[in-house]
Amino acid sequence: MPVKVEDLVYVYSEGLPYETLALDGVSFEIADGEFIGVIGRTGSGKSTLIQHLNGILKPKSGRVFVGDAEITAKGVKLAEIRRKIGLVFQYPEYQLFEETVYKDVAFGPVSLGLSQRETDRRVREALSLVGLDFSEFSERSPFELSGGQKRRAAIAGVLSMKPEVLILDEPTAGLDPGSHMDILNMIGEIRRREGVVVILVSHNMNDIARLSDRIFVMNEGKIALSGAPAEVFAHDEFLASIGLRLPPVAEMMRKLRLRGVDIPEGVLTIDEAERALEGFLRRAR
Amino acid sequence: MIRDITLGQYYPGDSWAHRLDPRVKIAVTFVYILALFLIRDFGGHAVAAAALGVAVAVSRVPPKFILRGLKAVFIIILFTFTLNMLMTKGEPLIKAGFIVVTKEGLYNAVFMGLRLVLLIVGSSLLTLTTKPVRLTDGIESLLKPFRRFGVPAHELAMMMTIALRFIPTLLEETDKIMKAQMARGADFESGSILRRAKNMTPLLVPLFIGAFRIAQDLAMAMEARCYRGGEGRTSLHELRLRKQDAAAIFLTAVFLSFILLERWLSPLWFDI
Amino acid sequence: MTNMRKTRFWVQAAIIAAVYAVLTVAFAPISYGPIQVRISEALTILPFFTPAAVPGLFVGCLTSNLLSPYGALDIVCGSLASLLAAGGSYALRGAPALVPLPPVAANALIIGAMLRFAYGVEPSFWICALWVGAGEVAACYVLGYPLMLYMRRHKDIFRLD
């Protein structure tokens, strides 16, 4: 399901003394099945932008298209939008409220008015996608789970709606390194199995570099830069000027290059770095 | 959405009224309200209105702001006015089918309406010129003498301070929860009151759990800083009465005496 | 009570007050005036779980009214009603079905009286009381009772130790 955004403008607290221009004319297109990474300093407009994609916020001006449907048009049924676009907020485990994990994950399908059979099918699917064993977890209270498990349960609650676009806002925030990797791998898995468009908002450059097909760099309510990870991270000076850092590997490669080490551009992951350094060492002999 | 709610009524300023001791302001407001209920006729209202006018001028709060506060309450004023006008029995003035407006009804409506306006503007002056934190200081101080009767003055004031501090935080939390649940298909907006009430659970339960988590962390933080309750506790800003407070008290006494005087003398002027 | 328990008690009360105020303010248009349906009144079931809710709801009501343009009269009457209601609910905590009853009664009578005598709303005290009572029933029983049933599973967040 492709997504298109035309000239979005959004103002917080309009008319009041502290009004802020959060989105200043944002436009982009996302093709079906793409994995988009969104990066930007706090306050650059990332969260505001993604909330426009599932209709939670209505722009002051501009249009948003999901597939063929224009969600910013008048009289659009929000329920339909929310079925198609799944938004996982930061610290999603804080939205858990039901008595059992099963019921909480079922909340979405039930709200959509699906049959009990269909709901059951979706709950099982969603729990399997997030790696929570059905027999072990479905009847437990969500509040008994560990932090990482809670988060997965919360994500399952969004997946059970079977969205065609999955937006995740800092899904690994506050997790230990182990859980962090788990969640990231889980996202990759979901993308692979379901073929959905994934939009990942994160401060973790490593994650973004690894998973994204394309990156949007946000600054002061606009998309300042966009492109494939290798392209985007080549603009290290610009990124630094707007308060963003490179992925640690890219940073290291950059510093090596400054010292005259012959390393190609666009090395972003550890594996690529390993190969590049091997190559350099061989040539240097 | 929820972010756009402005909290409280405080209008920043440095007027004489702003600088008065909050205890004095609270007491003056009480006397004013009491006076309003002692008034029996429009002469009294005139006195009260004059006093209010002086107070508003002194506070240097723009009348536009005060009127905005009235706008919010406009419905209830209109409601009261209409009910009074239509439902008081007496000598009929206007007849339009079922609807009868009596002379007494009109009088009552105007009288009550006026009192309501004076009441609301007068008491908003208190919150307009006093920061909530100062108000809690004032309340704590005023309640202190009642400690011997078991009123936990310090604790109540501390509660208010904590509550005021956390209201913005919890508002944001509520906003986040609402949005997250809406993203899952929850519906807080449509349906009958009964339906909407039932739909509140996905909002209330996480909000509670989140709020109590905050409470636990806060209690621990306070303990870690040696909080031991109100005994022997000093304050960063001590309340002290000054000359202007004495002046305010004196003027209020004058006002009250005028009100009483007017009420006593009024049979001479009014015939109704 | 030990110091720690005492601190926890009052902080819990403070947070209950904050949540009450937040729910009142967040749903502001319907929270004030003669046609009150305060979502926050659902919280009146809290005394079932913890005595900290008694000062908590009192201060919550106090603070909500401070933040509103309706003025001092609402502050005194509303808060008083909340205090009595919370006390009553706490006393009735042995019978869950009766817990939402004191707020309905207290608010109907006290706010009803305020509307009749202070705001001059005609025609009679009993109609005002009924009017307020109806709004309270909606909030307290319809919203509060299910909330109470839910929260029973999470009783431990109210623990003081």
Features:
heterotrimer, A: 285 residues, alpha/beta, Rossmann fold, 6-stranded mixed sheet, 4-stranded antiparallel sheet, 12 helices, C: 161 residues, mainly alpha, 5 helices, 0% strand
Rg of chain C from C-alpha positions? 15 Å
Alpha-beta classification of chain C: mainly alpha
Number of helices of chain A: 12
Radius of gyration of chain A: 20 Å
Widest beta sheet: strand line-up of chain A? 6-7-8-3-9-10
* Biggest pleated sheet of chain C: none
Largest interface: B-C, 73 and 58 residues
Overall average pLDDT of chain A: 87
* Number of β-strand runs of chain A: 10
Oligomer: heterotrimer
Structural class of chain A: alpha/beta
Following the backbone from N to C, one meets helices and strands of chain A in this order, namely: EEEHEEHEHHHHEHEHEEHHHH
Tell me what the CATH architecture of the domain at 1-76 and 166-177 and 198-229 in chain A is: 3-Layer(aba) Sandwich
Give the helix proportion of chain A (percent range). Answer: 40-55%
Query: What is the 3D form of chain A?
Result: globular
- Give me the count of strands of chain C: 0
Question: What's the CATH topology label of the domain at 1-76 and 166-177 and 198-229 in chain A?
Answer: Rossmann fold
Brief description of this entry?
The complex is a heterotrimer of chains A (285), B (272) and C (161). With 272 residues, chain B is mainly α. Chain B is built from ten helices and two strands.
